[in-house]
């Protein structure tokens, strides 16, 4: 049986870092940033605060490494995916697929996003820099996407879209609101719309708004929305 690596060895240090990341990620999401202490993290990770600060320098640095870095990586992949669709794929199907990935990500990471938004709105000095970096990266990526998709929307397909960036931002805002403010916008006595229903509505709003939508019978992408809970 192979023994555990010595803590002072490179392998041991990597193992400690992985434990800290795993424990901190769970506690930040379940308890929130402010309620989670470095002492609590270290006790669960079976190490010392001195070791934690050697790896991450601060609690905010640990938060960024455990939660924000993976978030940023997803945003990069998500934005890049729009350019990877087959050239013969219908635009409404592209936007629906893109919107569904966004809705699923938002729902999976809703507590993280609430932490980041709270830090930004409250101007929490310990996290505001992290929140600013993430929101700026997301907005910049969305603008780049809108510039690329806007060419397709306005010139190739001749849609009546004056500002592709605004159209994209409004669609993303709808998804954010439906997922993060679910209890504010849907009655509590009925199941909330599922991911596919929300993604379909977002894509339809981006493409057609409300009054410009095609009739149901002539829209091959339209399907009766189901209501089985946003978490599905």
CATH superfamily of the largest domain: Tetracycline Repressor, domain 2
Overall pLDDT: 79
- Number-wise, the strands total 0
Helix count from the secondary structure assignment: 10
Q: What is the count of distinct domains?
A: 2
Give a short summary of the structure.
This protein is mainly α and 232 residues long. It folds into 2 domains: 1-57, Arc Repressor Mutant, subunit A, CATH 1.10.10; 67-218, Tetracycline Repressor, domain 2, CATH 1.10.357.10.
Which short descriptors sum up this protein?
mainly alpha; Arc Repressor Mutant, subunit A; Tetracycline Repressor, domain 2; 10 helices
What does the model show?
The protein is mainly α. It has two domains: 1-57, Arc Repressor Mutant, subunit A (Orthogonal Bundle); 67-218, Tetracycline Repressor, domain 2 (Orthogonal Bundle). It has helices at 10-31, 38-45, 49-56, 59-81, 91-108, 110-122, 128-156, 164-180, 182-185, 195-208. The two termini are 42 Å apart. The model is unreliable at 224-229 (pLDDT under 50).
Topology:
Layout: H1 10-31, H2 38-45, H3 49-56, H4 59-81, H5 91-108, H6 110-122, H7 128-156, H8 164-180, H9 182-185, H10 195-208
Helix pairs in contact: 1-2, 1-4, 3-4, 4-7, 5-8, 5-10, 6-7, 7-8, 8-10
């Amino acid at each position: 049986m192979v023994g555990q690596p010595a803590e002072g060895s490179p392998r041991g240090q990597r193992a400690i870092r992985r434990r800290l990341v795993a424990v901190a990620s769970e506690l930040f999401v379940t308890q929130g940033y402010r309620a989670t202490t470095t002492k609590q993290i270290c006790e669960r990770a079976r190490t010392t605060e001195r070791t934690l600060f050697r790896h991450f320098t601060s609690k905010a640095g640990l938060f960024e490494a455990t939660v924000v870095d993976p978030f940023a990586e997803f945003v990069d992949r998500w934005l890049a995916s729009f350019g990877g669709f087959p050239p013969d794929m219908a635009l409404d199907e592209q936007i629906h697929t893109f919107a569904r990935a966004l809705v699923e990500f938002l729902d999976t990471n809703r507590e993280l996003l609430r932490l980041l938004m709270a830090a930004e709105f409250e101007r929490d000095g310990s996290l505001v820099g992290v929140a600013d970096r993430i929101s700026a990266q997301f907005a910049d990526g969305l603008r780049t996407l809108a510039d690329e998709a806007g060419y397709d929307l306005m010139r190739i397909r001749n849609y009546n879209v004056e500002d592709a960036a605004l159209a994209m931002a409004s669609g993303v805002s709808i998804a954010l609101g439906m997922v993060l403010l679910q209890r504010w916008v849907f009655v509590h006595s009925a199941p909330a719309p599922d991911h596919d229903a929300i993604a379909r509505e977002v894509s339809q709003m981006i493409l057609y708004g409300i009054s410009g939508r095609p009739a149901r019978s002539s829209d091959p992408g339209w399907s009766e929305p189901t209501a089985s809970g946003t978490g599905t």
